[in-house]
Specification:
Length: 177
């Protein structure tokens, strides 16, 4: 299921490139990297989870773009720990620092999160609304590639556990169109 969603993201990108949307995709980017979620964000007594994040940013106007984001958490966790997938979209503002190739961005994303586990005493299978507010920096390493460091305040619409550390950290490779 995770692989299907990632392949769908790649397929949408390929479709946009093949439909003459080159001008729209100029200054756009795709990201794939490691993601760390804070403790108890979606359920109590669930420590920080490791996973991956994939995002696609489409440039719309100067400084303004639209971003789609998919994350999966719970890699390496046992079956009693809820595995969580988030899927969000929203606006992104990007500022390019001249000559350096550095891009600083901020985004506001809204969507859903699905959590489930397959073992343990309490069974979980729930989908809920979620949001993320944050930003980051992309540092150019090659003409079409950059390395991203990003952080977000992330939470669900309903009350998260009071012990929640509502943050996530992402780092990884960015491909610039």
């Amino acid at each position: 299921m995770v692989i299907r969603r990632f392949l769908l993201l790649l397929g949408v990108t390929a479709f946009l490139l093949s439909t003459g949307a080159e001008a729209q995709l100029r200054n756009s980017d795709a990201f794939l990297g490691y993601s760390r979620l804070g403790n108890d964000v979606y359920y109590p007594n669930v420590g920080g989870l490791n996973g991956f994040d994939a995002a696609l940013h489409i440039h719309i106007a100067p400084f303004l773009g639209a971003e789609g984001d998919y994350s999966y958490y719970g890699l390496g966790a046992d079956s009693s720990i809820p595995k969580t997938s988030t899927f969000m979209a929203g606006p992104r503002l990007t500022l390019k620092v001249p000559i350096t190739g550095i891009r600083i961005f901020g985004h506001g994303l809204v969507g859903g999160a699905h959590s489930s586990n397959s073992g343990g005493g309490v069974s979980i299978n729930e989908t809920t609304g979620t949001y993320a507010l944050g930003g980051g920096v992309d540092i150019r390493v090659f003409p079409f590639f950059a390395w991203r460091f990003a952080g977000d305040h992330i939470s669900r619409f309903t009350d998260s556990p009071s012990t929640a550390q509502r943050w996530r950290f992402n780092t990884g490779l960015v491909f610039r169109f």
